[in-house]
Amino acid sequence: MKLNVLNISGEETGKKVELADDIFNIEPNDHVIYLDVKQYLANQRQGTHKTKERGEIRGSTRKIKKQKGTGTARAGSIKNPLLRGGGRMFGPRPRDYGFKLNKKVKQLAKKSALSYKAKDKNILIIEDIDFQAPKTKEFVNFQNNLKINEKKSLLVLSNKNKNIYLSARNLKRSKVLTVSELTTYDVLNSETLVLTESSIDRINKNFGLTEEK
Length: 213
What we know:
Blueprint: E1 2-6, E2 12-18, H1 21-24, H2 30-44, H3 103-119, E3 123-126, H4 136-146, E4 153-157, H5 162-168, E5 174-178, H6 184-189, E6 192-196, H7 197-206
Parallel strand pairs: 1-3, 3-6, 4-5, 4-6
Antiparallel strand pairs: 1-2
Helix pairs in contact: 2-3, 4-5
């Protein structure tokens, strides 16, 4: 699959970039996408929830009524979970929601997500860009030139660029990531995927299609 390369003004440069079929044109696997996104969202959870059980709340341990002869169920503590103000039974405790996922499964999920984007023609290729200083207005103009200002977009760079990142940070519908930070969730959560020329080379290297120099 070949796509035209655009410049920062949104104009065609006359160059074309070929997207590898092994990454951008495979048969998507929905189940591995589900697993990868599930793991990503699980890892975002802090898992710090906690409620007090009967042994952790304050209260007297005196037996509140005699064992027999009341005609009601026996009760030995005011901290009983059945009473108002008592501890909670089987309440949440701090835990880690993360789970293991094989590397090949995650790679297949990312390829599947990229293939969906390519299939729906939601990928744009641009020349490598750089801002002299962090300017949100300049990034907005860049989006307007690509006609993606009203879409949720994801710009993928080959390496970190502080000026571009800071320029897009305050924009609700824009996100900037490097290839090493790219996840299946981020790809699917964007309407338009914007790749730089150098980021495509980095993606190919990460998937082992070309050797690292």
